[in-house]
Model the fold of this input.
Amino acid sequence: MGTVGSPFTIEPVELGRRTADTSLFLYLTEPGVSVEIAYRVWVLRSATRTILIDTGPPCEEGKRRGLTRITDVAAALAGIGLDAAKIDTVLLTHLHWDHAANAAQLPNATFFAQKSEIEFFRSAWRRHPSVDRFFSHCDYLDLLIDHGRILPIDGDVEIVRGLLAMRVGGHTPGSQMLCIETGEGRALIAGDTIPLLRNYRERIPSGILVDWFEAIAAIERVVDLRPAVIYPGHDVVAHLKLDY
Done:
């Protein structure tokens, strides 16, 4: 995929919000208490590259699931001067509906997900009703995999210089975070490893997970990385700057 010679900037782009039960995002914490959550994609730009993290939720699916103020990703990108049809690289933190199912709005992109995530997506385990409810547009994503438009990353891989994909699992078998060198120092797009900043502050994993031990280890890995900035998956606060 090439190299870059300058740091990235990171621009969170909000696509919608809804209220949800706190325990869905903070494991066994405050069931019945509502929390407002945001849905985003993240735009990485360097002197030579523009890379998108995640696709955001499809509008109709988002409305069905209770999102408000929902904006399609193509319109949101146009609002910051980007043509969705010209995006050529999208890194997927995982394949849940709100992170990957809007791929049709990025018609010329190649998508990258962890090998273990793709294998899980195509397995009988994903099709179990208790798990499949977190996915949508599965036939379309299957076609993208068949046609080589969703390609596998296996483990920790430097995508380009200054951008490291890190497989952590936990939330899904192939959940990944992105570690990015920026002008502010090391930044971390955490996906749903850290859906809310409270997950990081209180060391509580997401309430939606497939491996409790991996989910805990992933948060501890973030702590050990000592990033200058964390971008959570769903907090209404788009980022947290850390002062060690």
